[in-house]
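Encode chain A's predicted structure.
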Amino acid sequence: MGVAALSGPVDPETLDRGLEAIHELGFEPIPADNLRSRKGLFAGSDNERLAAFHNLAADPSVRAILFTRGGHGSLRLLPRLDWSALAAVPRAYVGYSDVTPFLLQVVARLGLVSFHGPMVAGDLARGLESDEWGSLERALSGGYPDSVPLERVGGDRAVEGPLLGGCLSLLTATLGTPFTPDLSGSILFWEDVNEPLYRIDRMLNQLALSGSLSHINGMVIGKLEVTDEVIGGPDLGSVVQEIADHPDWPVAWGCPSGHCRPNMTLPLGLNARLDPRRNELELGPPTAAPK
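Encoded structure for chain A:
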């Protein structure tokens, strides 16, 4: 199992705990060359991170690559990634947060399912709970159909489509670039951490104004801790409802994936189904990525 670092630097002790967790789970971690590097905000310079990732991805024995952490930095590398080389060795890629744009490009460019799930120096280092490990194991082994619990689902009818999305701030960071995801026909999942309500409102409006929400089939919101909700003021529910007030948009709440615990693994690009009669996200067989 490969371990890559496209974004921020990693604390050595935290990294060691995460690598040991991979051992305990029965896998041999194969580290990228830059895992212990540090240059400013990043796990090495752009050239170092890029070369280390390409070297790791060139190994055909590496059938899955997990990322160490998020932070910042992967966007700087997207234009220089060798997608032809990545296509030569189909594999699973697992991460979230800053890795969101990369995971969505894996779906769009390579036609593969990628996985919004635990990272080595975060979730694995603190110790996966049994349900988190089971979710990751089923994802890596193709154990679908499967389901993820939700707090509630609102809407009048069931919908389905490929599950796409990730960290909200990274989804908006790609707008206006060649890496803007096409969300048409999808069930859009989004989550984030430590974001005040006004920023969430602004980011959702930015997605709406860009047209990205015009043709989605449904919306799934992660477990969020909004930092500035004011008593008597607008809450997250009203903000989302104002943007997603559409008869064809079921909206689901409380999906446990990303910056939360438990952090369940979601297969991006796999067909998903939302049914207002069931408080769960149903995950089915893969479908083609939206055009």
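Residues 12-24 form the longest helix (13 residues).
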